[in-house]
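Anyone have tokens for Peptidase S8? Sequence:
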Amino acid sequence: MPQPPAWAVPRASSDSPPGPWPVVGAVLVGCWAVAVTVPVQAGGWLADQLLLGVGRDRAGWLWPAAGLLTVLLVGTPALLLALLPRSAAIRATGRAWLTGVVVLGVFTLLRAVPPVHHEAYLGGLAATAALAAAVLGRLARRRRTDGRPGPTVAVPDAAGAVPTGPAGPTAHPPAVEDPRTAGAGAADDPAPGRRALGGLRAGPVTLLAIAAGLAVLLPWAWLGALGGPLETVLAALAAAALGALTGALLDAGFWSRFAVGEPPRPVRLVLVGGLVAGVTLLLLAAGAGQSGAQLPALLTLPPIGFASAALHAAAHRRRNSGAGSAAPTRWLVGLAAFGPLAFADPEEITLLLGTTRDVPFWVAVTAAVGLAVALLLAVGYGVLLARPAARTPGRRTAALTAAALLVALVAVYLGPGRPGLYGERLLVVLREQADLTSLPTVAPGRAGRDARAREVYRRLVDTADRTQAGLRREVTRLGLRPTSYYLVNAIEVDGGPAVRAWLSGRPEVDRVLVSQRLRPLPAPAGITRGTDPAPTGPEWNIRRLGADRVWAEGVSGAGVVIGSSDSGVDGRHPALAAGFRGGDDSWYDPWDGTRFPTDSGGHGTHTIGSAVGRDGIGVAPGAQWVGCVNLDRNLGSPGHYLDCLQFMLAPFPSGADPFTAGRPERAPDILTNSWGCPGIEGCDAGVLRSATAALDAAGIFVAAAAGNTGPWCGSVDDPPAPYPDVLTVGAVDDRDRVAEFSSRGPARGGAAKPDVVAPGVGVRSAMPGGGYATLDGTSMATPQVAGVVALMWSANPALVGDVTRTRQLLRDTATPAQPTYLSRDPSDTCGGDANITGAGLVDAYAAVRAAR
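Reply: yep, here.
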């Protein structure tokens, strides 16, 4: 009869084989834990996305409530499992799951930190996980010093026989090495001094764990991108703390409960212990990461429980005990957790980017590849290390494996990956803003408008140069790469929370906002193209506004220029190419630096097409257009919104300094803005207020979309829609009913918004590549109003620059629209129909007649 391996742990009297019912109960509790945790986490993220999509504030109670619900639903049966069964293995299972779900509940409290402050969240996660690891480690040491017997190890004598005593196999000191593997490599529990070297002199099992962690991290280095320097460091600390926490939870005592048996069965350790560890890792992964970042971890972390079990089987075999065997788990989990924490911005795992091959798509791909790698590791390590007769690779082999994977990781990151740091920026808004009161009186018409624009530009630049000089020197000296703005007196710089705190304390600074930056993609998102047939005449919305009647009288918008700040414009589209103004100051792309109008997302091409497109899609087909890219992949930032608005006040050649090369006389007459800047992008309520005030003072007409967050009252809230010096536009359908999605007032302070409504349901317009598409939204309604203003100013050039008079004419000539309500409750009528329909549906024909 073959002798049992040297790592066999005798079955204590209290660890008799569990009966069938405790095992069935453990299986049911494990399945219940997965069935509760995964839907709660996915549902919480979807709820976050729904609130974001409808423009509502984040529910601060959402994640704490989700965590409490999970703790109650999973923790209760786990507690019973930890207390009632006689089997030590079943009780160890219950303790692991109970601890995991309690930690999950604590971690979810950290999600009360707004996602825009990701560094603060990661710092809190690192501190909380480290504290939990320290508490669990102290409890484990206290249990040992209290005299509770740990697992004993049967060690064969020189002849291979297992010595026995009155109570069974004789316990030997755990440091005795398995004769079959003696000399094969260093032990996996180095002395304390060596342990401090962070694994540099670790044994083969820990090196194999490092190799496995690098393999799981590999897809993230290939498809993801890092954030800022502090963000990356904090993500590394949080991942290390999670590894330490997992090592303290799945320690030697835990694994020894699944290695019992005569003869011992390492396969049981891998299959049963790995399954229990996988559920534990699922619970920990569910709490680790801001809303969205935990979802890929739910796929990639649980399968490595099996690999960790196989590594611990090898560690037991080499050392004849579980002493120090937390090291493989610490390394494996820590490296695996670093991927989703560091290589994906949770704010970009959003449905706002989900319609194309953007961050959500690539995160899903990365998680799927990581899942495949983790499953391969589970099978491979199980076969390699968990067979009773298996030999653990020597230290040299394990070290070469880890080194090869490290080299591969670096090569992938520097090659097909996206090396570098892509953190957020800070927008520093200064206290002093330019004084634009008492502007000189000018003659009506374009000449007067140009004179006003020049004076506004001069005052803005002078104020910014005078007040920013000292701060610019300081941030330049610190290497924070400042970008100055004058339309709002502000500077954008690099930096995290420490820099933000320093800047906020300076006397000349009013406030500091986070200016979002998107991380790069592994491949272009692709061009959004339309599939509708080309129009054969004026579209229904054009006829409904009466624009075709205006054309019949010889007015098409000629002599007027409309500026579009959006995702871009396809400058080669047949309906738009002839209308591009041209020159070196008619296109600006602060995101990618393109030199000719281009658009991948399609939103900007569609909106400018509704304003000036030929072939029956645009209200003012005779007008010209200029463009700027302020949306990259459907998200923006305060800085880039300012880049485009500044360009519209004083266009400049590509690459030139906006402070010295601006040409206010080349400013477009009208701006169409089918965007809003919510808090997720870094804006606060007043950040663009000075910008729209300056454009208004310069005689530039600003139209802005009300937003698509109706039918809730007070949903006109993202800048610039609530501002009094922009014309805010809602949407109606072909029956003149306000669309349910159209945002409603009142705006902050009680001002009535929107100002007017226009067709915004089923609007066909241009798309990149020469195609057409039908879209809904206040984004579609807004450029049509800009086109109506172009018709008015083309019909009466003396009205150019008279923004106040033009807004009033639009309101006076509007026709009634039919309001819609959330319900018939008086509280859902938004304080009156003026906050739903505004002055009514714009009438192009009546407005042009009034303008004449």
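The chain has 26 helices and 15 strands.
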